[in-house]
Protein backbone atom coordinates (compact mmCIF):
# COMPACT_ATOMS: atom_id res chain seq x y z
CA UNK A 1 0.00 0.00 0.00
CA UNK A 2 0.97 3.66 -0.26
CA UNK A 3 1.71 5.88 2.72
CA UNK A 4 3.50 9.09 3.68
CA UNK A 5 6.79 8.03 5.24
CA UNK A 6 9.19 9.95 7.48
CA UNK A 7 12.57 8.26 7.08
CA UNK A 8 14.05 10.46 9.79
CA UNK A 9 13.15 13.60 11.72
CA UNK A 10 13.53 16.24 9.05
CA UNK A 11 11.79 19.16 7.25
CA UNK A 12 8.39 18.49 5.72
CA UNK A 13 9.71 18.38 2.16
CA UNK A 14 11.68 15.25 3.09
CA UNK A 15 8.48 13.25 3.57
CA UNK A 16 8.02 10.51 0.96
CA UNK A 17 4.93 9.08 -0.73
CA UNK A 18 6.11 5.49 -0.80
CA UNK A 19 5.27 1.81 -0.42
CA UNK A 20 4.69 0.70 3.16
CA UNK A 21 3.77 -2.72 4.61
CA UNK A 22 0.04 -3.36 4.91
CA UNK A 23 -1.17 -3.66 8.52
CA UNK A 24 -2.56 -6.92 9.87
CA UNK A 25 -5.30 -7.54 12.42
CA UNK A 26 -4.55 -9.66 15.49
CA UNK A 27 -5.68 -9.60 19.08
CA UNK A 28 -7.50 -6.34 19.76
CA UNK A 29 -6.30 -4.67 16.55
CA UNK A 30 -8.59 -3.45 13.77
CA UNK A 31 -7.59 -2.65 10.18
CA UNK A 32 -9.31 0.40 8.67
CA UNK A 33 -9.31 1.18 4.95
CA UNK A 34 -8.97 4.96 4.93
CA UNK A 35 -11.64 7.14 3.32
CA UNK A 36 -10.50 10.39 4.97
CA UNK A 37 -7.37 11.37 6.89
CA UNK A 38 -7.18 14.46 9.09
CA UNK A 39 -4.26 16.90 8.97
CA UNK A 40 -3.19 18.45 12.27
CA UNK A 41 -0.53 20.88 13.44
CA UNK A 42 1.10 18.30 15.75
CA UNK A 43 1.69 16.06 12.70
CA UNK A 44 4.15 18.65 11.39
CA UNK A 45 5.89 18.93 14.74
CA UNK A 46 6.19 15.15 14.97
CA UNK A 47 7.91 14.67 11.60
CA UNK A 48 10.42 17.40 12.44
CA UNK A 49 11.22 15.90 15.85
CA UNK A 50 9.67 18.87 17.67
CA UNK A 51 6.77 17.12 19.40
CA UNK A 52 6.56 15.82 22.99
CA UNK A 53 7.05 12.23 21.81
CA UNK A 54 9.27 10.73 19.13
CA UNK A 55 8.33 7.42 17.48
CA UNK A 56 11.05 5.12 16.12
CA UNK A 57 12.03 5.99 12.55
CA UNK A 58 10.98 5.36 9.89
CA UNK A 59 7.30 5.98 10.64
CA UNK A 60 4.04 7.12 9.10
CA UNK A 61 2.66 10.37 10.60
CA UNK A 62 -1.00 11.25 11.05
CA UNK A 63 -3.40 11.11 13.99
CA UNK A 64 -6.90 10.77 12.49
CA UNK A 65 -8.49 8.33 10.07
CA UNK A 66 -12.06 7.52 9.11
CA UNK A 67 -13.10 4.68 6.87
CA UNK A 68 -14.30 1.10 6.73
CA UNK A 69 -13.20 -1.89 8.83
CA UNK A 70 -11.63 -4.55 6.59
CA UNK A 71 -10.26 -6.93 9.22
CA UNK A 72 -10.45 -7.50 12.97
CA UNK A 73 -8.34 -9.46 15.42
CA UNK A 74 -9.72 -12.49 17.20
CA UNK A 75 -10.17 -10.58 20.46
CA UNK A 76 -12.11 -7.63 18.97
CA UNK A 77 -15.69 -7.34 20.26
CA UNK A 78 -16.74 -3.74 19.58
CA UNK A 79 -16.66 -3.47 15.77
CA UNK A 80 -16.93 -5.83 12.79
CA UNK A 81 -15.86 -5.95 9.16
CA UNK A 82 -17.85 -3.46 7.10
CA UNK A 83 -18.46 -0.95 9.92
CA UNK A 84 -17.81 2.74 9.24
CA UNK A 85 -15.46 3.95 11.94
CA UNK A 86 -12.97 6.62 12.95
CA UNK A 87 -9.84 6.30 15.04
CA UNK A 88 -7.22 8.54 16.59
CA UNK A 89 -3.63 7.71 17.56
CA UNK A 90 -0.25 9.39 17.92
CA UNK A 91 0.82 8.49 14.35
CA UNK A 92 0.23 6.07 11.49
CA UNK A 93 -2.81 7.60 9.76
CA UNK A 94 -1.26 9.01 6.55
CA UNK A 95 -1.76 5.69 4.78
CA UNK A 96 -4.24 3.78 2.64
CA UNK A 97 -4.84 1.34 5.50
CA UNK A 98 -4.36 1.86 9.23
CA UNK A 99 -4.16 -0.55 12.17
CA UNK A 100 -5.79 0.67 15.38
CA UNK A 101 -6.53 -0.80 18.78
CA UNK A 102 -10.27 -1.29 19.20
CA UNK A 103 -10.25 1.00 22.26
CA UNK A 104 -9.39 3.91 19.93
CA UNK A 105 -12.03 3.06 17.32
CA UNK A 106 -15.43 4.79 17.25
CA UNK A 107 -18.34 3.61 15.12
CA UNK A 108 -19.80 6.44 13.05
CA UNK A 109 -23.48 7.29 13.10
CA UNK A 110 -25.49 7.60 9.92
CA UNK A 111 -25.30 11.12 8.55
CA UNK A 112 -21.75 11.86 9.73
CA UNK A 113 -19.25 12.25 6.89
CA UNK A 114 -15.76 10.77 7.08
CA UNK A 115 -14.22 14.25 6.91
CA UNK A 116 -16.39 15.54 9.75
CA UNK A 117 -15.52 12.47 11.82
CA UNK A 118 -11.81 13.25 11.47
CA UNK A 119 -12.38 16.85 12.51
CA UNK A 120 -14.32 15.81 15.61
CA UNK A 121 -11.41 13.73 16.90
CA UNK A 122 -8.32 15.88 17.48
CA UNK A 123 -9.50 19.43 16.74
CA UNK A 124 -12.88 19.32 18.42
CA UNK A 125 -11.63 16.82 20.99
CA UNK A 126 -8.84 19.16 22.07
CA UNK A 127 -11.12 22.19 22.29
CA UNK A 128 -13.85 20.29 24.14
CA UNK A 129 -11.41 18.95 26.74
CA UNK A 130 -9.81 22.38 27.05
CA UNK A 131 -13.07 24.22 27.71
CA UNK A 132 -14.79 21.52 29.75
CA UNK A 133 -12.19 19.83 31.95
CA UNK A 134 -9.41 22.44 31.97
CA UNK A 135 -11.19 25.75 31.56
CA UNK A 136 -14.39 24.73 33.37
CA UNK A 137 -16.31 27.14 31.14
CA UNK A 138 -19.70 28.16 32.54
CA UNK A 139 -22.70 29.47 30.61
CA UNK A 140 -22.71 33.27 30.57
CA UNK A 141 -18.92 33.61 30.80
CA UNK A 142 -16.79 35.35 28.17
CA UNK A 143 -14.51 33.13 26.12
CA UNK A 144 -11.74 34.60 23.95
CA UNK A 145 -10.40 32.32 21.21
CA UNK A 146 -7.09 33.16 19.53
CA UNK A 147 -6.33 31.58 16.15
CA UNK A 148 -10.08 31.41 15.72
CA UNK A 149 -10.07 30.41 12.03
CA UNK A 150 -7.87 27.35 12.51
CA UNK A 151 -9.31 23.87 12.97
CA UNK A 152 -9.06 23.90 16.77
CA UNK A 153 -10.00 27.59 16.99
CA UNK A 154 -13.20 27.15 15.00
CA UNK A 155 -13.98 24.12 17.16
CA UNK A 156 -13.50 26.24 20.30
CA UNK A 157 -15.83 28.92 18.93
CA UNK A 158 -18.59 26.40 18.24
CA UNK A 159 -18.12 24.47 21.48
CA UNK A 160 -18.05 27.70 23.47
CA UNK A 161 -21.42 28.65 22.01
CA UNK A 162 -22.80 25.15 22.68
CA UNK A 163 -21.75 25.59 26.32
CA UNK A 164 -23.53 28.95 26.56
CA UNK A 165 -20.57 31.35 26.53
CA UNK A 166 -20.19 34.74 24.89
CA UNK A 167 -17.44 34.11 22.35
CA UNK A 168 -14.88 36.67 21.16
CA UNK A 169 -12.90 35.32 18.20
CA UNK A 170 -9.49 36.71 17.25
CA UNK A 171 -8.06 36.11 13.77
CA UNK A 172 -5.45 37.70 11.54
CA UNK A 173 -7.44 38.72 8.44
CA UNK A 174 -10.88 39.94 7.40
CA UNK A 175 -11.54 36.64 5.62
CA UNK A 176 -10.61 34.58 8.67
CA UNK A 177 -12.69 36.82 10.93
CA UNK A 178 -15.67 36.31 8.60
CA UNK A 179 -15.22 32.55 8.87
CA UNK A 180 -15.13 32.77 12.68
CA UNK A 181 -18.25 34.95 12.66
CA UNK A 182 -20.03 32.46 10.43
CA UNK A 183 -19.06 29.73 12.91
CA UNK A 184 -21.02 31.51 15.63
CA UNK A 185 -18.68 34.01 17.29
CA UNK A 186 -20.45 36.93 18.95
CA UNK A 187 -17.62 39.36 18.19
CA UNK A 188 -14.51 39.16 16.01
CA UNK A 189 -11.27 41.08 16.53
CA UNK A 190 -7.82 41.36 14.97
CA UNK A 191 -4.53 41.14 16.83
CA UNK A 192 -3.73 44.88 16.71
CA UNK A 193 -4.04 46.52 20.14
CA UNK A 194 -5.59 43.29 21.41
CA UNK A 195 -5.25 44.10 25.10
CA UNK A 196 -7.18 47.37 24.66
CA UNK A 197 -9.85 45.94 22.33
CA UNK A 198 -10.51 43.05 24.71
CA UNK A 199 -10.79 45.45 27.64
CA UNK A 200 -13.35 47.47 25.69
CA UNK A 201 -15.20 44.35 24.52
CA UNK A 202 -15.58 43.08 28.09
CA UNK A 203 -16.51 46.42 29.61
CA UNK A 204 -13.28 46.43 31.60
CA UNK A 205 -14.13 43.14 33.34
CA UNK A 206 -11.66 41.05 31.37
CA UNK A 207 -11.87 37.60 29.84
CA UNK A 208 -13.13 34.63 31.87
CA UNK A 209 -11.56 31.91 29.72
CA UNK A 210 -8.78 32.50 27.21
CA UNK A 211 -8.02 29.87 24.57
CA UNK A 212 -4.54 30.22 23.05
CA UNK A 213 -3.10 27.92 20.37
CA UNK A 214 -0.89 30.76 19.06
CA UNK A 215 1.59 31.83 21.74
CA UNK A 216 4.03 34.70 21.20
CA UNK A 217 2.82 38.29 21.48
CA UNK A 218 -0.83 37.21 21.26
CA UNK A 219 -0.43 35.26 24.50
CA UNK A 220 1.10 38.31 26.18
CA UNK A 221 -1.83 40.50 25.15
CA UNK A 222 -4.43 37.94 26.24
CA UNK A 223 -2.70 37.43 29.60
CA UNK A 224 -3.03 41.15 30.29
CA UNK A 225 -6.71 41.07 29.33
CA UNK A 226 -7.70 38.25 31.69
CA UNK A 227 -10.33 38.90 34.33
CA UNK A 228 -10.32 38.00 38.02
CA UNK A 229 -10.69 34.25 38.50
CA UNK A 230 -10.05 33.65 34.79
CA UNK A 231 -8.47 30.59 33.21
CA UNK A 232 -5.90 31.09 30.44
CA UNK A 233 -5.59 27.85 28.46
CA UNK A 234 -2.24 27.02 26.85
CA UNK A 235 -3.05 24.94 23.75
CA UNK A 236 0.04 25.39 21.57
CA UNK A 237 2.46 27.75 19.88
CA UNK A 238 1.50 28.14 16.21
CA UNK A 239 3.37 31.43 16.09
CA UNK A 240 6.59 29.52 16.66
CA UNK A 241 7.35 31.46 19.84
CA UNK A 242 6.88 29.99 23.30
CA UNK A 243 6.13 32.98 25.55
CA UNK A 244 7.76 33.65 28.90
CA UNK A 245 4.99 34.34 31.39
CA UNK A 246 5.43 37.06 34.05
CA UNK A 247 3.92 35.21 37.00
CA UNK A 248 3.13 38.44 38.86
CA UNK A 249 0.26 38.90 36.39
CA UNK A 250 -1.42 35.77 37.71
CA UNK A 251 -0.96 37.05 41.26
CA UNK A 252 -2.31 40.58 40.86
CA UNK A 253 -5.09 39.64 38.41
CA UNK A 254 -6.09 36.45 40.24
CA UNK A 255 -6.23 34.15 37.22
CA UNK A 256 -4.81 30.72 36.40
CA UNK A 257 -2.63 29.54 33.52
CA UNK A 258 -3.72 26.02 32.62
CA UNK A 259 -1.94 23.59 30.31
CA UNK A 260 -3.94 21.48 27.86
CA UNK A 261 -2.48 18.20 26.53
CA UNK A 262 -5.35 16.32 24.92
CA UNK A 263 -3.27 13.29 23.92
CA UNK A 264 -2.23 12.64 27.52
CA UNK A 265 -5.83 13.18 28.69
CA UNK A 266 -7.17 10.49 26.33
CA UNK A 267 -4.62 8.00 27.68
CA UNK A 268 -4.93 8.93 31.36
CA UNK A 269 -8.72 9.19 31.56
CA UNK A 270 -10.27 7.10 28.76
CA UNK A 271 -13.69 7.09 30.45
CA UNK A 272 -13.87 10.90 30.47
CA UNK A 273 -12.58 10.97 26.89
CA UNK A 274 -15.31 8.54 25.80
CA UNK A 275 -17.94 10.67 27.56
CA UNK A 276 -16.59 13.77 25.81
CA UNK A 277 -16.85 12.09 22.41
CA UNK A 278 -20.42 11.01 23.11
CA UNK A 279 -21.31 14.59 23.97
CA UNK A 280 -19.58 15.94 20.85
CA UNK A 281 -21.32 13.44 18.58
CA UNK A 282 -24.64 14.35 20.20
CA UNK A 283 -24.01 18.05 19.58
CA UNK A 284 -23.08 17.23 15.98
CA UNK A 285 -26.26 15.26 15.39
CA UNK A 286 -28.28 18.08 17.00
CA UNK A 287 -26.64 20.64 14.72
CA UNK A 288 -24.91 22.52 17.57
CA UNK A 289 -21.44 21.94 16.10
CA UNK A 290 -20.39 21.47 12.48
CA UNK A 291 -16.74 21.18 11.39
CA UNK A 292 -15.58 23.60 8.72
CA UNK A 293 -13.83 21.52 6.04
CA UNK A 294 -11.70 23.84 3.91
CA UNK A 295 -10.69 21.25 1.37
CA UNK A 296 -9.81 17.67 0.48
CA UNK A 297 -6.47 16.75 -1.11
CA UNK A 298 -4.55 13.75 -2.41
CA UNK A 299 -2.65 11.72 0.14
CA UNK A 300 0.42 12.13 -2.06
CA UNK A 301 0.22 15.91 -1.55
CA UNK A 302 0.48 15.60 2.24
CA UNK A 303 3.82 17.46 2.58
CA UNK A 304 2.45 20.61 0.88
CA UNK A 305 -0.89 20.39 2.70
CA UNK A 306 0.84 19.98 6.05
CA UNK A 307 3.09 22.95 5.28
CA UNK A 308 -0.02 25.12 4.82
CA UNK A 309 -1.25 24.09 8.26
CA UNK A 310 2.15 24.74 9.85
CA UNK A 311 2.33 28.19 8.23
CA UNK A 312 -1.15 29.12 9.49
CA UNK A 313 -2.46 29.30 5.93
CA UNK A 314 -5.53 27.13 6.48
CA UNK A 315 -8.98 28.19 7.62
CA UNK A 316 -10.79 25.14 8.92
CA UNK A 317 -9.94 21.47 8.57
CA UNK A 318 -7.83 19.99 5.76
CA UNK A 319 -8.44 16.37 4.73
CA UNK A 320 -6.29 13.90 2.80
CA UNK A 321 -7.87 11.27 0.54
CA UNK A 322 -6.27 8.07 -0.76
CA UNK A 323 -5.93 7.96 -4.53
CA UNK A 324 -8.93 5.67 -5.03
CA UNK A 325 -11.21 8.41 -3.62
CA UNK A 326 -9.81 11.26 -5.74
CA UNK A 327 -11.78 12.15 -8.88
UniProtKB/TrEMBL annotation:
Superkingdom: Bacteria
GO MF annotation terms: oxidoreductase activity
Classification via Gene3D superfamilies: Medium-chain alcohol dehydrogenases, catalytic domain, NAD(P)-binding Rossmann-like Domain
SUPFAM superfamilies registered for this protein in UniProt: GroES-like (SSF50129), NAD(P)-binding Rossmann-fold domains (SSF51735)
Domain Enoyl reductase (ER), chain residue ranges per copy: 10-320
Protein name: Zinc-binding dehydrogenase
Organism: Nitratireductor arenosus
